[in-house]
Write a structure and sequence with these properties.
By secondary structure, the chain is α+β, with helices and mostly antiparallel strands. It has 3 domains: about 75-100 and about 115-195, Reverse transcriptase/Diguanylate cyclase domain (Alpha-Beta Plaits); about 195-270, Alpha-Beta Plaits; about 275-379, Ubiquitin-like (UB roll) (Roll). About 35% of the residues lie in helices and about 25% in strands. The protein is built from 14 helices and 17 strands. The strands form 5 sheets. Strands 4, 6, 7, 8 and 9 form a 5-stranded antiparallel beta sheet that branches. The radius of gyration is 25 Å and the shape is globular. The relative contact order is 0.08. The model has no long low-confidence stretch (mean pLDDT about 85). This is Reverse transcriptase domain-containing protein.
Amino acid sequence: MLKRPPYPESLETRKEIEKHINELLVMDLIINIGHNELVEITTPVLITWHDGKSRLCGDFRALNKYTKADRYPIPRIPHSLKKLAKEEYITKMDCMKGFVMSICEYTRMPFGIKNAPAHFQRMMDTIFQEEILEGWMVIYIDDIIIYSETWEDHVQYIDRVLSKCTPINPKISLEKCNFGQNKLLALGNKVSGLSLAIDQNEVAAVLRKQVPKNIKEMQYFLGFAIYYRNHIKNVSHIASSLYRLCSKDVVFGLKKEGRDAYGSIKHELTNAPVLILPDFELPFKLYIDAACSQGLGAALHQRKMVDGEPREGVICYISRKLTDSEARYGATQIECLCLVWAIEKLHYYLEGAVFEVYADCTALKSLLNMRTTNKNMLR
């Protein structure tokens, strides 16, 4: 069924909907449908709130079921942010409304459509292809990040971006823009040319919520925690009992193990380390940690000069649980598996780089001179 009636709404919500619809009509992002025109698909709209401000969103769930997915790649946030390493100046711009009293028709891609993120990312990548290839600009859907080592270059880059924006007329939200900063909030992180930290305002908003009472609430909490997985050591191990609660064949209920895991993740989020951004001209340190009954874990470190003193910092943590077959491996096999997995997982840092491996399993050293027919070890 692709014809759905409007939702019941309060007087306050109705006023917000009318305000947003009038704005969209003025901007020609929607048009009114005539009384004699055939309407084949209707979707209700609703209001969501963030930081005290309302946002209009269409409920396109029914339509999205019949929409063929657009597989255009969305950039991975950690890969995008590592490009800011050693940059002195950072600018962030936010495209506003990049993405109703009577029946109206959209003239642009609306917020809530299944393929809206992929479509918008493709459009932005096409418009700013030259700037992205030159290596001083990152785009994540409607967020534009400009970075440079010198102020002169930075001013020039901002001018180029704004000049390209003029003919396409995107709506830039000045309230969400930060120009020429050394540190700023971007993509849920506090970023600079040296470090990356969790936005604790985001963490506080999630932790103020009550303990999850059902699978949906637990999935939301886990999704938030996994977004910051690079900041949390062995997060896959810690969260394993909570993931089991989300299985279809398990009756949801937080017992002691689950409550302990939930509390541990909250503690890790609020006490997460500030990650350093990599310097590819310096060697890396790879620490591996394989717990035989829990899973695989690793940490990538680097030693840098900070305020004239050498300091070692964390670039990222990674972890995953063991498969059923891997859980039957011996201790040395699991340590070897952890080493191979970590190097492959972090290949975009380690490929072509000098790095040292640190492990608490001395048997790994013997692998360099190993003579065996064990296929698992050889692989």
